[in-house]
Design brief:
The chain is an alpha/beta fold. The protein has helices spanning about 15-20, 35-45, 60-70, 85-90, 105-120, 120-130, 160-170, 190-200, 220-225, 240-250, 270-275, 290-305; strands spanning about 5, 25, 50, 75, 95, 150-155, 175-180, 200-205, 230, 255-260, 275-280. The chain is about 35% helix and about 15% strand. The structure holds glyoxylic acid.
Amino acid sequence: MPSVLVTRHVPDGGLDPLLAAGIEPVVRPVDDPLTGAELAQAAAEHDGLVVLLTDRVDADVLVAGARGGRLRVVANVAVGYDNIDVAAARAHGITITNTPGVLTETTADLAFMLILAASRLCSTAEADLRGGRWESWSILGYLGRDVSGATLGIVGHGRIGRAVARRAEGFGMNVLHHARQPTGEPGYVADLDVLLEQSDVVSLHIPLGPETRHLIDADRLRRMKPTAVLVNTARGQVVDEEALAVALEEGRLFAAGLDVYEHEPVVHPRLLAAPRTVLLPHIGSASVETRTLMARMACANVVAVLAGDRPLNPVT
Ligand code: GLV
């Protein structure tokens, strides 16, 4: 029987595909990420790994897996896979899989929540209330920006970006989108800078890669309207956090809603101190239903590869 390690406890029912295939996985009883050395050892000792985005599956881990002669699949319980060296995996014939689709609506909900919460200064207002600083209803207090009638610029036209666009239409927003390839759909803007200049709200829905690292840098932030709101539920490194903090401090950007950070779980101290921010701890897909489906999908991918079948969600 193949040996599979699941690097954390997952929601109840998440392991069902493995159990149904007669595979009793080894589940680590603790919730902290494995060190590189621990992951390398696990890669050498198991046929399949179910990992999280906080597990760094780098070339050393994959080489250890190849040397051990057993490892055939690493299933990421995430749609993003920037934590895995996919090229090294390919070089060693190890299949990588991810979990697209099942988290689309949940993540789009959170992105839209950040659009609303940042536009309406919800965290600032709530912090004042909790801190005993709310003295009276005030006609000038906590004046946010309406999303209704505003232009939303979506960067990326994948599943999640399109799901955010559907929500935005229900809220009466004008929706633009940018993608590297023309989408042929209404609202397409070929030039990212033009989209940034025209949008009242910008929401990022692109994977992290060499070409998207610091895509939103100081120059691009300067292109945005001083009344604009930036929302990031993609990956932290897509935005230059320090430049964002400076733009907020200097009032060159109205507000930001973030779920992801450059060096998670550390948040840039200047961003923590910056005004008009809503900051969440990477919870885009965090619903019971979705996290269960993500774990099941990862386990089903492992079962398929270990049975010699093509997995449902290979990363290529
Ligand atoms: C979460 O960030 C994911 O990539 O699934």
